[in-house]
Amino acid sequence: MRVSLSPAELDQLLPEDELLDIAAGLTAIASPTGHETALARHVRKLLRAHKIGAALHRVQPGRYQTVGRLGPTGGTPALLLNGHLDMDPLGRDATPDQLIAARDGDRLYGAGLHNMKSGVAAMLGAAIMVQRSGIRLRRGLLLEFVAGELQGGVGTCTPCAGDCAPTRRWYPNRIRCGAC
């Protein structure tokens, strides 16, 4: 079945202001490498609020990331979206207001938006739009919000190992990343 939505219908699924609020919420949580857990919990809460399956994955003791799945929970997902939660350090002269997103015309500024919180917001927005559309997916959409991009992708390899009981069924044996 082919589904076609007009631009106006897409805008109704996720208004621009709501997407900007999602991005601003991500920016408000500092997530330097090794300290991604608070942001992972925020992402999990956001996914669950929109009725999208989500769970925390332990990367290391006390360090977590989020994995979500939309659509059927069995079988090989049709698509995997992966984005990292860790951000570049703010630096010695950083001020708390860098964690407050600021809009200037059609631009949004804030810590981590350039790498990669805007991409994470886009992933969340896309998943929310699919969920709200009511489209029944034949195969799952897998979402990975990972830790440790600045450490060689340590977070991306963790879910591939399938070692997290709540989501083990989401990762068929043939899904593996090339870095693992």
Show the helix and strand layout.
Blueprint: H1 7-13, H2 16-27, H3 37-49, E1 53-60, E2 63-70, E3 79-84, E4 102-104, E5 107-109, H4 113-133, E6 141-146, H5 154-160
How many structural domains can be distinguished in the coordinates? 1
Mean pLDDT: 85
Number of distinct helices: 5
Which geometry do the CA atoms define?
Answer: flat
Largest sheet: number of strands, sense, barrel closure: 4 strands, mixed
Radius of gyration, rounded?
16 Å
Q: How many strand units? A: 6
Q: What is the CATH superfamily? A: Zn peptidases
**Could you name the ranges where pLDDT drops below 50 across 5 or more consecutive residues?**
none
Strand content: 15-25%
Strand adjacency order, main sheet: 1-2-6-3
The sequence of SSEs as H and E is HHHEEEEEHEH
Give the CATH architecture.
Answer: 3-Layer(aba) Sandwich
Helix/strand-derived category reads alpha+beta
Q: What do these coordinates show?
A:
This is M20/M25/M40 family metallo-hydrolase. There is one protein chain. The protein has helices at residues 7-13, 16-27, 37-49, 113-133, 154-160; strands spanning 53-60, 63-70, 79-84, 102-104, 107-109, 141-146. It has a single domain, classed as 3-Layer(aba) Sandwich (Aminopeptidase), CATH 3.40.630. The protein has 180 residues and is of the alpha+beta class. It is flat, with a radius of gyration of 16 Å. Strand 4 (102-104) and strand 5 form a beta hairpin. It has a four-stranded mixed beta sheet, with helices on both faces. A two-stranded antiparallel sheet has the order 4-5.
